[in-house]
Specification:
Chain lengths: 475, 80
């Protein structure tokens, strides 16, 4: 199963450092023993193999203990974004049909207390051994759904292990590596940290949260901790290149940086490549449904400020296909998710031909794939997937809203941000709408523009005329 | 200067129910200013006010509130 690599490292080097968070360190043996205690507590709670368990913890040592505990019990984990409004968390916990919620301290007020398990209360006992099949689910990662509700992408042990094994080989990870970790568990980037890094016997060093706001101290931390690799998002690396004092901070141990989740503006990437001449830079690409399906090792001489970088070649043995009619990227292979998780059941995400159609428009040029944007309506806001339908569903549920439409506005740093068009009943005030949305949607889904209009223009087939709305935005 | 900063922050960087009610000493980080927002804010301030904000001074304390931002930017070296 997914933890086989980690378990092998526990036998080979039990005293090696697995996790470090500020002054706190956990060896491989300690992490295993803590995770086993959580697994035993889940079993005592009645959790059966294959059942989902939510993780109500921010990234860090405790979250890894909880995730590994869930996996050792044969459960699949559902990481929660604690910044989400409680209404969204309530939906996810209910939609996933979790049998327990792992956390620390008191029960969150929105949660049924019977589901809550405080991991600090887990007695140090061994769990009963469970058989985990490779096709069994390991994780359900909720993203924004085009149906108007958050949607769980269900990943099997085999799918995550296929990615992690491939990545560990590509980066040639060894127990000597010291890898920085900043990705929240609900982003698929975290699977690299948890399974590629800890499966290779390297140590994982959690980036202190506030350092993302102080780029010079961030680069100093990377140097002091002798970090050898880091998988993160372009925006943070761009900040580092712009104001990270890198000219005065040699990062001699830093072998590689990987970025994913949004397009890296090439001019910022050129700056980064210039100040880190000896660090290998990798662009990873792929929606959560495929984890990573494409990658490109940055070739510095090929970078041109006015041209987007390629997404490169197939990753992790994925097969790629470009649909001739739409230019859409289709993927199949071992890293592809098992399906969408809906009310405790899997729904297929493959098309009739057996491929996952990504919704990404791509082209291929001399063996290298290039990304040209989205075909559908999905937006990418600060690295988060945002389906306009999810915002529209919340707005439409407000009394006094006749109809609404959400579309993306390009934003130089956030990628895109949602703009909201509405037709309101006469007595309805815009401030009321804003209030409801600030309660019911996470910060990255908040519209950056609101426009009240008399009517939304429709095409002859009755569909909303998004092109006309887009033109309105450009005025 | 504070007015310009405030207008930029609330139109471009963070969403707030009622920017007019946001005080000069109120916490911008709590209101949602993140690392990307800080980066854009610095780009804006350097251009708008003709200063260079040194890398090592980019700290949560200096961007915590409109007052803190103004104090910080006012003592920054002016570009020639």
């Amino acid at each position: 199963m997914l933890l086989d690599g980690f378990l092998q490292q526990c036998r080979q080097q039990p005293g090696g450092v697995a996790l470090a968070e500020n002054a706190r360190q956990l060896s491989y043996a300690e992490l295993l023993s803590r995770a086993q205690a959580v697994a035993a507590a889940l079993q005592a709670h009645g959790v059966q193999p294959g059942q989902p368990v939510a993780i109500h913890l921010d990234r860090g040592v405790d979250a890894v203990i909880a995730v590994f505990g869930a996996l050792l019990a044969g459960a699949c984990y559902v990481p929660l974004d604690l910044k989400n409004p409680s209404s969204r968390l309530v939906f996810i916990v209910s939609d996933a049909q979790v049998k327990a919620v792992l956390g620390l301290g008191d029960v969150p007020i929105w949660l049924d207390a019977e589901l809550w398990l405080n991991i600090a209360d887990s007695p140090r006992i061994q769990p009963k051994p469970v058989a985990t099949s490779l096709t069994g689910l390991a994780a359900i990662l909720y993203t924004s759904g085009s149906t108007g509700r958050p949607r769980g992408v269900a990943l099997s042990h085999a799918a995550i292990a296929a990615f992690a094994g491939w990545a560990a080989g590509l980066l040639a990870l060894t127990p000597q590596d010291r890898i920085a970790s900043s990705a929240p568990l609900f982003f698929d980037l975290s699977t690299f940290d948890l399974y590629a890094v800890l499966g290779a016997g390297a140590s994982l060093h959690f980036l202190p949260a506030k350092l993302a706001l102080a780029p010079a101290r961030l680069s100093a931390w990377l140097g002091e901790q002798a970090i050898s690799g880091w998988y993160t998002v372009p925006s943070l690396l761009a900040f580092l290149a712009y104001k990270g004092n890198l000219a005065q901070t040699p990062l001699e141990s830093l072998r590689f940086l990987i970025f994913a989740g949004e397009v890296f503006p090439t001019s910022a990437l050129i700056d980064l490549a210039d100040v880190l001449p000896n660090t290998a830079l990798y662009n990873f690409f792929g929606p959560t449904e495929t984890n990573v399906c494409c990658y490109w090792l940055v070739r510095r001489e090929q970078l041109q400020a006015d041209q987007n970088i390629p997404i490169g070649q197939p990753a992790a043995g994925c097969e790629l296909h470009i649909d001739a009619e739409s230019g859409e990227l289709w993927v199949r292979g071992s890293t592809v998710a098992s399906g969408y998780w809906r009310k405790g059941r899997l729904a297929s995400l493959l098309n009739e031909q057996g491929w996952y159609a990504t919704g990404d428009r791509v082209s291929i040029d001399r063996g290298e794939y290039r990304f040209h944007g989205r075909l559908g309506r999905m937006l990418k806001c600060s690295g988060y997937r945002v389906e306009p339908a999810e915002i529209e569903a919340v707005v439409n549920a407000i009394d006094g809203v006749r109809e609404c439409a959400v579309l993306g506005v390009d934003d130089p740093t956030a990628g895109q941000r949602p703009a909201l068009f509405m037709v309101l009943e006469p007595e309805m005030e815009l401030t009321e709408i804003r209030k409801v949305l600030s309660r019911q949607l996470p910060p990255y889904m908040q519209p950056s523009r609101y426009q009240v209009t008399a009517a939304l223009h429709r095409l002859p087939n009755g569909k909303l005329d998004y092109q006309q709305l887009k033109e309105l935005l450009e005025i | 200067m504070k007015e310009k900063l405030k207008a930029f922050i609330f139109s471009e960087l963070i969403y707030h129910e009622d920017p007019a009610a946001f005080g000069d000493g109120d916490d911008l980080l709590e209101a949602g200013l993140d690392s990307m927002g800080i980066m854009r804010l610095i780009m804006f301030a350097e251009k708008e006010f003709g200063v260079t904000l040194p890398d090592t001074e980019i700290e949560p304390d200096n961007v915590q509130s409109l007052n803190a931002l103004e104090n910080w930017i006012k003592q920054a070296p002016q570009n020639l």
